[in-house]
Amino acid sequence: MSVDFATIKKTQRAGWETGDYPRVGNTLQIIAELLVESADVRSGTRALDVACGQGNAAIAAARRFAAATGVDYAVNLLAKGRERAAVEGLDVEFTEGDAEALPLPDGHFDLTMSTVGVMFAPDHQRAADELVRVTSVGGRIALASWTPAGMVGEMFRTVARWAPPPAGVRPATLWGTREHLDGLFGDRVEWISVTERQYVFRYLSPEHFSEWFRDFYGPITRLSGGLSQEDLATFAAELGDVARQYNKADDGTVAAPADYLEVVGIRRR
């Protein structure tokens, strides 16, 4: 099946540039902090954050005095990343670029990372090839990706019922499985650390969770804007039910664990 990845990416980019994704992304900072620790980032390391959004992993690396770069194709998210780095007095270079065609030289980075970012590139193989290309032989690739199971996987399935993904595009959450990563990277990368982790979504209530994602998570914001009032009410309730289904809190708030896979590998060739 021929897939028009260019058109798909144009639509995706419009989604990420809708709403205010950093309001959601900033809450996920702990994922990046754990990732750079697992990758054993050192001061002076040339570290790249691919599909960086507002720069969580780049900023985490820069806090450890790495030479950090963030790349994303959503210019509004890059602007937020620059603001965040400036506030903290961190030296991070933010560059506009496509995860499937990185505007960066071969083998330049000691550490190439992505936290729930590169997984959304529609052409999985091309994105994986780019991660390998820009990483030095002997350098590390570190990824954190939502899994098909668990809360985020269920949220994406809920969204897909209202906005089915383009034909031929594989689910982003496949990046959260070891089998898919082995297929994408083969013997080019030796995974030295594979860890199943959980991120806990914490919100005031299931309704607050639903509202927050509808207001700020670009692709969901864009979807919500195209629904009738009746359909929007139904969709909003379904998002709230996702948080309710996984919620462990007993005080009316949300504390809902979501599974993700953290991997660190060494580029062997």
TrEMBL record:
The keyword Transferase applies. It comes from the Bacteria. CDD domains: AdoMet_MTases. InterPro entries: Methyltransf_11, SAM-dependent_MTases_sf. Keywords: Methyltransferase, Transferase. Coiled coil: none annotated. GO terms for molecular function: methyltransferase activity. GO terms for biological process: methylation. This is Class I SAM-dependent methyltransferase. It comes from Actinocorallia longicatena. The lineage of its organism: Bacteria, Bacillati, Actinomycetota, Actinomycetes, Streptosporangiales.
